[in-house]
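Internal ticket #5521
Category: modeling
Description: The requester needs a full-assembly model to guide mutagenesis choices. All entity lines are attached below as received. Residue total reported by intake: 446.
Assigned to: D.W.
Attached entities:
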Amino acid sequence: MKNLNLHIEISPELYSKNPDSSDLGRKIISKSIELIDELGFEGFTFKKLGIAINSPESSIYRYFESKHALLVYLTSWYWTWTEYRLVFAMSNVDSPEERLRKALEILTQPVTIDNSVSHVNEVLLSEIVFSESLKSYHTTKVDEENKRGAFNSYKAAVRRVSDIVLEVSPDCKQPHMLISTVIEGAHQQKYFAEHLPSLTDQTDEKNSITTFYTDLVFRFLET
Amino acid sequence: MKNLNLHIEISPELYSKNPDSSDLGRKIISKSIELIDELGFEGFTFKKLGIAINSPESSIYRYFESKHALLVYLTSWYWTWTEYRLVFAMSNVDSPEERLRKALEILTQPVTIDNSVSHVNEVLLSEIVFSESLKSYHTTKVDEENKRGAFNSYKAAVRRVSDIVLEVSPDCKQPHMLISTVIEGAHQQKYFAEHLPSLTDQTDEKNSITTFYTDLVFRFLET
DNA sequence: GCAAATACGATAGTAATACTATTAATATCG
DNA sequence: CGATATTAATAGTATTACTATCGTATTTGC
């Protein structure tokens, strides 16, 4: 993907003060990505982040009301950005099959090259989304946060790819189930490969997870 | 499934004192299942459990060194018990296809009838496993706990069903990936149906999740 | 260019959580 | 009946996730 230098806008519902509007805000975003990747979301605290950026905890709370709100912001950023990646990858590809194949690649592979000039390290962010994004919606407050639009960009990405599924197979009855299964499955299989290998099937092949889920989808859609 | 009154044994690595060896221990198990189901795992604390069973926190710590250890115990209990369910359901079924179909039902449907005479409410426990079991292995200490055998019964269940997959399709290259995708997917889709319905495909049909994953598996294995 | 708003830093404090430690009462078992 | 293990009762600790206050710096609007 070429460096389009596009600007990702996040709904004001998802922050207290826009982190994109100040130096401190951008430092919060970039350093939190590094720290969450390094410590995991549980080990990450605003206190540690404050020390890392030389600002008190209380200043961070001006931007995000909780560390969970920050995770929601980050995953939302990722999915908004990923929608752009999807749109870009689809352009000038006429065959629905080819578009679906390309979309599945985007959904199932972590990002490897940081093309961004911004404060967001997309490689690390995609790592975080793969390993921690579950925690953004798996809470007791899901319903409330969902109403505030916390998961809109994720849902939009699922819908977009589901629509391609329907182009390939107009009779498919469960396109959303299929795509959300693929996304979450790919995230989990990567984790399993690293920590619980007997739950997956390790191969030397580089993109075995993408291959598996691509096969799964296309065989499911065959008539 | 008939009431076999079978005794589930859990590896001593997974508790400090066997909760099955005393009244207090059994009360800890049965009440914790109710409380985790009611409050969610985050909202659940040993303090609340202590109040509910009229015992101090410190007594509970004699049985489990942490609330996470208790969750690991509970999921381990569930998967050991589910292996028995699998074995029982497979007996006298000759066709590998039928066995696989039956196994997928067991893996993708929450339990609805509590046949047990024991202190374990299997209906609630299966709810907990569906919604919280992710948290048992998604921690920074996975590797350590995995070495201690914390996930052996889960892995055994996956292996068992993967073996049936191989009977149906000896050439299948990713049976474990397929089955763990199905299990985790079914858990998630149930959650999505309740909280994020646009990530799934709601139907009036009762077992739509089981139907979907059964189709997914059999279409994947078709040659 | 100057007041007014805003942002930030510095510091302190709080309630809850996840444990740990200690001691005394009680039940169990040979 | 005496030794041993088990549990109750209580207290205490470090950490976490926030909240509150206040003075100073910085920007902004006119």
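Resolution: model delivered.
Comment from assignee: The longest helix of chain A spans residues 67-90.
Ticket closed.
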